[in-house]
Amino acid sequence: MNLDGKLPGDGDDKASILIVDDLPEKLLVFQTVLEPLGQNLVYVRSGAEALREVLQREFAVILLDVNMPDIDGFETATMVRRYKRSAHTPIIFITAYADEMQTAQGYKLGAVDYIQSPVVPEVLRTKVRVFVDLHISQKRVERQADVRVALSVAEAARHAAEENTRRSEFLSRASRVMAASLEVSVGAVKLLELLVPAMASHATLLLLDDRQAFDQALGCDAVQPGETPRFTERAFAALPDAEQRALAGAIDARAAQQVACGLAVPLFVAERALGALLVSGSDYAFDLALLEELASRAAIAFENGRLYRAVQNEIVVRRDAETQLQAMNRRKDEFLAMLSHELRNPLAPIRNAVEVIRRVAPPDPKLDWATDVTERQINHLTRLVEELLDVARISQGKIALQIEPIDLLGVIAQGVETVRPFIDEKRHHLVQKLPDGPVWLRGDSARLAQVVSNLLHNAAKFSDEGGRLALALTVQQGQVCISVRDDGIGIEPELLPQVFELFEQGKRSLDRSQGGLGIGLTLVQRIVHLHNGRVEVSSAGHGQGAEFKVILPCLSEVKPADEPAMPPTPAPVGGCRVLVVDDNRDAAESIAMFLEITGHEVKTVGDGMQALASAPVYAPDVVVLDIGLPMLDGYEVARRMRKLPETSGSLLIAMTGYGQRSDKQLAQEAGFDQHLVKPADPDLLVTMIEDWRASGRSARPRAGRSARK
To answer: Would residue 350 count as lying in a domain?
Structure first.
C-alpha cells in the first residue's frame, strides 16, 4: 500500500475497451458514445486485428460487429475464447439484424449481450459502464490479494534469507580465513578458532600424513570469556580412547558419526581422506549440514596446501631449466628477426646495380651471363631471407592473416605460377588433378598460395631432374585436401616425426646440392595451423618419394572433374505446389528461390491467417510451415490445415528453431509429417519432398485439386 492507504494503481485505473467494426462511420459513433466513460478505447476494423490486440493486452469488454469481410464476428469470438487471457472477457455483439438462431449462436459463443444497430447511446454506455466497473473492481481485489500474499511470502523469505545469509557469511568467512595461508598448520588453527567457543566447547582436528596414516591431532578447548582458546597438539595414540574411536570411525565410514563425546565429521577430497574433525559440548546443538559443509571447505583448503608443497618442490627444480630454455628461445627468435632484416638491406642495392649494368653496359655475352647468374642468386637469397623473416614473425606472434572468402583454385594457380620457373628449370612434369568448379573457404589467399608454392618447391628440389610431380585437390565432408606427391629421394622413417621442425633436414651430401635452410615445411605447418587445419606427410622410405597433405575446413564442396558423377535419381514429372509460411521474409524468400530452382511452384505468406486463407485457393501439395508465427502459431495452423479438404493430405513440414524431442512430438501431434531445425539444409528439404512424391502419396486425389486446373 501507499502512504495514503491506497493500493498500487488506485486512482489511475483505466479499463481498455475493444471495438471491432469494419465501417469507419460506425467506429466514429462508438467513439462519441463511449468517450464520456473516460476509458481506453481501442478501435480495429477486422477480426485479425482484434486477435492481435487480444494477444497484447487485457480488455474489460469487447464490442464485436457480427458481419465483417475477412473473419466474421462469430469466428472472431471463437478464436478470442481460445486464448487464456480473453477466455472470460465479456463480448457484446453489435448487428443490424438478428434472428433467434443467430442470437442463440452468439450466446453459445459466450456473448453477454446482443445489441442491434443503430444503438441507443445511453443504453450502450450504461451496459459498457457495468462491465468496466466490474473489471476495475476485480483488478482492485486481485491487487489486494496479491499484496497480502506478497507480504506473507516476503516475511517467510526474509526469515529464510536471514538464516541463509548467516550460514553463507559464516562459510564464506571460514573459506576466506582458511585459504589465506597455504600452510596446513595455519589453516588447522583457523578452523578450530571458528568452532570454539562459537559452535562447541571442545574440538579436535586429526590430519593424516602422506601415507594415509593417523598423524598429529590438534585440540582446542574453550576457556573463560575474554580469554584466548587453549590449543593442544599431540599424537593420535595419545588421544582418549573415545576420541580415537570417533575420529577413526568417521574416516572409515566416510560419513558423520554421532558419538557419546560429540559429533565426528570426516574430511575428504574426492576419494582421498585427509582426516576428521570432532566437536563436543553438552550445551551445544550441532548443525550437521553446516559442519559437513565446513569440513568440506577445510578439506579443500588443506588439499590445496598439500599440493602447494608438492608443486613448490617441482617448481624449484624446473624453474632454472625453463628460464634457460626461454632465454635461448627468445635469443633465437630475436636473432632470426635481426638476421633476416640485416640480410634484406644489401639485397635491394645489389638488385638495382644489376639492372643498371643491364641498361648501360655494352652488349657482351659474358656480361649477360654474369648478370643472369647474379639475378638468379639474388632471387634465391631473397626467398631464403623471406622464409627466415616469416618464421620470426610467426614465432613472435606478429603475423596477421587477412581472412576472407577465397576460391582455392585461384590460390593453387597462384602458388603454381610462383614455383613454375623452378619446376621448368629442373624439367619436371607437373600433373594437376583439380575440380571443375570453385572451392570456397575462409583464409588468407597470399599465405595459402605460399603453402602451395613451398610444398611444390620442396617436391621439385628433392626430385631428380625430369621427375614427376602430382598436385591434387579433393573435397569431402566439409574439408578440402591439397596433396603434393613426388617420386624423389623420399624421407627416412626416423626423420618423418621431425620433418616440420625448424631447421630440420634430412641427410645431405657434402655438396648440399638441394640447398635450403630447413624452414619451408615449418612455415607450411604454422600457416596451416593458423587456418585451423593440419598437415600430414608420408613416405615409403629412401628413394620412394613423399606425399604431403594439407587438410583445411571449407565452405562448399564440388565434385572433382575426373570423378564419375552418380546418376541422379529420376524424379516424377513436374514439380509440386509448395506453400512457404514464415514471418521472416528473407527466410521465406530464400527457401522459395531454392525450391523454384529445383522445379517447384512456390507461394510465400507471412503469418498463419494468410496461410489458412490461401490454402483453399492455392491447394498446395507441400506446406513448409514455421512454428513461431504471430497470431496463430504453426501448431494451430497445422491442425486447421488437416481439417481443410484441400490440405488434409498435403505434406506438412515444420521449420523451427526448436529441436528437442518434445518439440518433435508436439509437431507430430499437430499433424506435421516432417520436422526440420533451422538453419535447415535446403537439399534435405528437397529430398523430403521428392521422397514423398516417389512414395505415391502425392498422387492421392484431394478436394480442391480441380480448382487449380
So the answer is: no
Mean of pLDDT values over 594-619 = 88
Query: Using CA atoms, how far apart are residues 692 and 79, in angstroms rounded to an integer?
Result: 33
The answer on 267 and 127 residing in a single domain is no
3-state helix, strand, coil in the chain (%, to 5): 50, 20, 30
Give the separation between CA 620 and CA 605, rounded to whole angstroms: 13
Return the number of other C-beta atoms located less than 10 Å from residue 124's C-beta: 20
Contact criterion met (CB below 8 Å) for 113 and 127? yes
Within a 10 A sphere around the Cβ of 646, how many other Cβ atoms? 20
Q: Are residues 530 and 598 in the same domain?
A: no
Query: Helices 121-179 & 24-34, crossing angle to 10 degrees?
Result: 80
Tell me the angle at which helices 47-56 and 73-82 cross, rounded to the nearest 10 degrees. 20
CATH, residue 54: 3.40.50.2300
The whole-number pLDDT of residue 386 equals 65
125 and 212, same domain (yes or no): no
At 483, list the grid cell.
596433396
Final residue of a structural domain among 287, 309, 331 = 309
More confident residue, 28 or 96: 28
Domain count, the chain: 4
Q: d(Cα 133, Cα 55) in Å, to the nearest integer? A: 22
* Element (DSSP H or E) covering residue 31: helix 24-34
Within 10 Å of residue 117's Cβ, how many Cβ atoms? 17
Which one is predicted more confidently, 204 or 655?
204
Q: What is the pLDDT of residue 708?
A: 36
H or E element at residue 217 = strand 214-221
CA distance 474 to 409: 11
Instruction: Classify residue 154: in a domain, yes or no.
Output: no
Query: Are the beta carbons of 135 and 60 closer than 8 angstroms?
Result: yes
Q: Please give the Cα distance from 46 to 68 (Å, whole number).
A: 7
Q: Are residues 419 and 535 in the same domain?
A: yes
Query: Quick one: pLDDT band at residue 568, thresholds 50, 70, 90?
Result: very low
Do 66 and 111 touch, CB atoms closer than 8 A?
no
* Boundaries of domain holding 66: 16-144
SS3 at position 474 = strand
**Residue 596 sits in the same domain as residue 649:** yes
Q: Are residues 411 and 527 in the same domain?
A: yes
Report CA Rg, the chain: 42
For residue 467, give every residue at least 6 positions away whose Cβ sits within 8 Å of its Cβ, in sequence order, or none. Answer: 426, 428, 429, 460, 486, 487, 488
Instruction: Among 96, 124, 144, identify where a domain stops.
Output: 144
The reply to whether 588 falls in a domain is: yes
What phi-psi label fits residue 116: left (phi over 0), alpha (psi between -120 and 50 degrees) or beta? beta
Percentage of the chain modeled with pLDDT above 70: 81
Q: Are residues 588 and 680 in the same domain?
A: yes
Q: What CATH number does residue 219 fall under?
A: 3.30.450.40
What is the rounded distance in angstroms from the CA atom of residue 234 to the CA atom of residue 231? Answer: 10
Is the pTM of the predicted complex or chain greater than 0.70? no
Query: Are 612 and 521 part of one and the same domain?
Result: no
**In angstroms, rounded to a whole number, what is the distance separating the alpha carbons of residues 193 and 206?**
15
Ordered DSSP codes for 330-373: HHHHHHHHHHHHHHHHHHHHHHHHHHHHHHHSPP-HHHHHHHHH
pLDDT at 384 > cutoff 70: no
Q: Is residue 152 part of a domain?
A: no
